[in-house]
Predict the 3D structure of the following.
Amino acid sequence: MAETELRKADHLRICLDEDVQCRETTNGLERYRFQHCCLPELDRNQIDLRTTFLGKSLTAPLLISSMTGGTDLAKTINYRLATIAQQYNLAMGVGSQRVAVENPQVISTFAVRSVAPDILLLANLGAVQLNYRYGLDECRHVIEMLEADALILHLNPLQECVQTQGDTNFSELLDKIAGLCEKLSVPVIAKEVGNGISGTMAKQLIQAGVAAIDVAGAGGTSWAKVEGERAQDPLQRRLAATFADWGIPTAECITSVRAIAPDIPLIASGGLRNGLEAAKAIALGADLVGMALPFLQAAHDSEAALHTLVSFLTAELRTAMFCTGNATLDDLQRSHSLHPIQ
């Protein structure tokens, strides 16, 4: 197995089997509380979770966040996720497709359109690869292999620092991202991997032409910890321990990005684990809520576990909306029913 494929297999195993969650840093959503409405004047069964993102209609504001690809287990997981996304009309991203560019034999582990012909499907490459011989052709290639609706460029400077022999030349990437945004036929989404996007950085990325932001804040899986589990030398292990809880909490990312860009399509991800947290993220200004670990754990278990997870998440979100008197997601965003805890 090639080095990149081994890394992907390690990432899956570690995320499923090891404790690599942030401990000191939370997603920040616990600092907010909804004002309960004792008389919602609504029929709960008529609450509408539908939304539109990047021109595609979704039945609920849920994104199965980018996770994996490149191995046999990853293929099973991706196809289970895509099957569920198709059935419930959810959005889905795949893990970094660099492994498939390097080894075309693993393209099938990503190519889920056959089971999910209608979903909002997001291709994925590391932005830093634009400084390591990747360019427009490779980006078009990963979009085409997935028949994707958009391309995620993920930003992971800390992960690359902790990763043994990581790619750490992040110089002059904004100009290269701008060039891609201008030339690609699909929208580009800028996404962190768990350390957050600030309002300041979001402004620069939007000026470069990205069509959407996925803040991927701190508070969930720590990729410093993940890479620390794989570390081959004491320096990498030391870096992983020191920076295990590094990053901007997800709630802070949402509010800071919304303050500078009221209209940019915005995805909240990073440590969200249930539908109540999803409701809080939407009330803070997110348009879509991304989750990775809950979907990964369920997909590793079975397709039935994924059905159960989606039913839980949508029931929790619908209940939060009902108990705050909001019939639609737009109502929830405009309601001012979420307040900081004093």
